[in-house]
Write a structure and sequence with these properties.
- The chain is elongated and about 65 Å long.
- The longest helix has 17 residues.
- The protein starts with 5 loop residues before the first helix and ends with a strand.
- Helix 1 packs across helix 2.
- It is of the alpha/beta class.
- The protein folds into two domains: 48 residues, RecR Domain 1 (Helicase, Ruva Protein, domain 3, Orthogonal Bundle); 126 residues, Dna Topoisomerase Vi A Subunit, Chain: A, domain 2.
- The chain has a five-stranded mixed β-sheet with strand order 4-3-5-6-7. Strands 1-2 form a two-stranded antiparallel ribbon.
- Bound molecules: zinc ion (ZN).
- Zinc ion binds next to loops.
């Protein structure tokens, strides 16, 4: 029986991470072999604890090392404006742009019936509750300009129909099919300033 080659095994596993191709994965493994074993041990320890240590924030869904994430627990944030994003990476891009001082709701996806992703998986009930109970005045939808992003935005407008909340969507400046995650600071700034009304 032939044993699995550990280099091959690890690089195959790493190459499944989005953005890491087969070549970079192999390069990474060789780099680790050349670096001090302590580095790999520490990396392994961090990976082993990742799922135990990082949880979704109980309020906004953002991955965080604490039950309530630093954004939700920051008293200086504007709690009347909530920005709805697809993924944590989008939240980070918006945070790094410094253009938004409100709070977030991270859906961890978009509506996609084909993949079995319905509103319950996106935490939209919890979003509705927050709007009802926390005096939120504006929802800024920052879904990506894709068909699923559009459908999800329209769905949010629909479930908030009876609520006294303004809904806007960032759009201008983001190229069609362009992801928020990769947008630069200026593009994010423009898209927030020129956000369009979806519901008064
Ligand atoms: Zn949070």
């Amino acid at each position: 029986m032939s044993e699995k080659n550990p280099i091959q095994e690890l690089s195959e596993q790493l190459s499944r991470i989005p953005g890491l191709g087969k070549k970079s994965a192999v390069r990474m493994v060789y780099h680790l072999l050349k670096t001090s074993p302590d580095f790999s041990r520490q990396l392994g320890a961090n990976l082993m604890q990742l799922h135990e240590k990082v949880k979704r924030c109980k309020i906004c869904g953002h991955f965080s090392g604490s039950e309530i994430c630093p954004i939700c627990s920051d008293p200086s944030r504007d709690r009347k404006t909530i920005c709805v994003v697809e993924h944590d990476q989008d939240l980070m891009t918006i945070e790094n742009s410094g253009q938004f001082r409100g709070i977030f709701h991270v859906m961890h996806g978009v509506l996609s019936p084909i993949d079995g992703i319905g509103p319950e998986k996106l935490g939209l009930d919890s979003l509705k509750r927050r709007v009802l109970n926390e005096g939120i005045q504006e929802i800024i939808i920052a879904t990506n300009p894709t068909p699923e992003g559009d459908t999800t935005a329209l769905y949010i407008v629909k479930i908030m129909e009876e609520m006294r909340v303004t809904i806007t969507r960032i759009a201008t400046g983001l190229p069609v099919g362009g992801d928020i995650e990769y947008a630069d600071r200026l593009t994010i700034a423009r898209s927030f300033h020129a956000r369009m009304s979806m519901k008064e």
